[in-house]
Automatic annotation (TrEMBL):
InterPro entries: Acetyltransf_17, Acetyltransferase_Eis, Acyl_CoA_acyltransferase, Eis_dom, GNAT_dom, NAcTrfase_Eis, SCP2_sterol-bd_dom_sf. Residues 11-180 form the N-acetyltransferase domain. Belongs to the acetyltransferase Eis family. It comes from Curtobacterium subtropicum. Keywords: Acyltransferase, Transferase. Acetyl-CoA binds at residues 110-112, 118-123, 146-147. Homohexamer; trimer of dimers. PANTHER family: N-ACETYLTRANSFERASE EIS. The active site is at 151 (proton donor), 444 (proton acceptor). One of its GO terms (molecular function) is acyltransferase activity. It is an enzyme of class 2 (transferase). This is GNAT family N-acetyltransferase. Its EC number is 2.3.1.-. Gene3D superfamilies: 3.40.630.30, SCP2 sterol-binding domain.
Amino acid sequence: MASNDAFDDRYDLREFAPTTDAQGAPSAETEAWMHAVELGFHETHPDAEGAARMASHFIADQETFLGAYLRDPLPGSVDETWPAGTFTWFRKRLTWGEGASVDTQAISAVTVRPTERRRGILRRMMTHALERGVAEGYAVASLTASEGTIYRRFGFGCAIRERAVTVRRERALPLLAPTTGTVTIVTPEWLAEGTGRAVFDRFDARTPGSMVRNAGTWPIVLGQRNGDGSPAKDVRAAVHRPEGAGVDPSEIDGYVTWRVKEGRGGEDTVLEVVDLVYATDEAYLSLWEFLLSIDLNDVVRYNRSRLDDPIVAALGDNRAYDVEHEEDHVWLRVLDVPAVLGSRPYAVDGSLTLAVSDAMGFAAGTYRLDVVDGQGTVTRLSEGDDGEADLRLDVADLGAVLIGSVSPVTLAAAGLVRATDPAAPALLRAMLTPARTPHGITYF
């Protein structure tokens, strides 16, 4: 990696807030940053209306933009105005469940121009951002990654994995247990008037691993816009009301949006779930039964399935369910061990001493975690990990186990958590086990 002096000789690191002009168009600096992100993710630049809408979302989310700019760009190159590296962060709440949550420093839009690779841009941006996160009082940073091998070296651990699945309709129904309540088809416009967000708020409050959504996410998941910002014309919506509910929209406890992609040349016609949000298990199963009852398609595809999806057990033939892909989803990076461990509830009381290594220095130290009546308190015993400890682990692995979806026992078997007594990883697993299965359906 290039030295800091070499970096400073070649690049200017600039931090700024996105802005718009009097007509709502992104400022020149903001739009140049947007162009660089689009280049990194192979996206097209929106039209004037779309660019203004995107900029308004950045401002609504109170994002902080960071760019690494070439000091001496060659004439005619985009480097004259576009940053060679991009980065943003903003506040995003993570739910632990049981009424507890923690604000995270959510990181997104990380790109480095191919012509400027291996010059220390990403490390410099990440170090700057995490130092700012500490200064702003964040206990933990978060991200969802486009590549799974980038972020562990910066102390991030994968805390939630999720699956893209398909269910073949012809073998799925009837479900093994009867569903309850009523499913009603609504328009996406009606859902977007407030009901969709209200249901998500209930899902978010009860679900460990859930995170609040970006402003720009809502028009997409509620069926108003496609991912590229163009109007969505093929999305349908339905809601679930529990048994005995009346007409009050506040009683709705689940919704789904979907589109159908017609198969060509003998391929399956696929019903693609755009968003499936549930405040109760009954709503989740009823909405699945509804989707599987829709005619003129072959399979239902859902890209946000949790690892222990109850629909597998509910299906009439569980071989109708296939996992197409499984990958990392939520990554967490601990910045303040006492603060983050003190913010969440615990299932089992007990005490453990954790020695945490951190190459970047933010979380390194030996800590004692004491849990009494489900509430944890943390005492820092030393700045290093050279004393006695029940468990030794890297900060990335502490981030991985935080929500309770990843087991310390599994990480111990992988050689990542080290313990002299095998009971210690098992105790930490029991302490961290959440009341409900973690499920993150928010990407950023």
